[in-house]
Fold this protein.
Amino acid sequence: MRVSSCAALVFAGLALGACANSAANRDSAEYQAGYGDGCATGGARIAHLQQEPQRNDELYEKSADYRAGWANGYTICGAGNGPGHL
């Protein structure tokens, strides 16, 4: 029973994350820049490279498209979990 409760919580978290990112304009330059930066950071994490995250902090703070792109890129390219997760 405990496993199914954990699975339900994980699924709910993923669903909420998908909703938050669904409003992003995936064709925007800011989304694309965020995706590229997040993907580079996620890929470095799974390659066990010790480096600072690649992220434009100014855009991350002001642009929902950049944040959504960064999160999606990080998740897709770096599996987005485990040690080193930001």
Q: What stands out?
A: The chain is about 70% helix and 0% strand. Residues 48 and 84 are 9 Å apart (CA to CA).
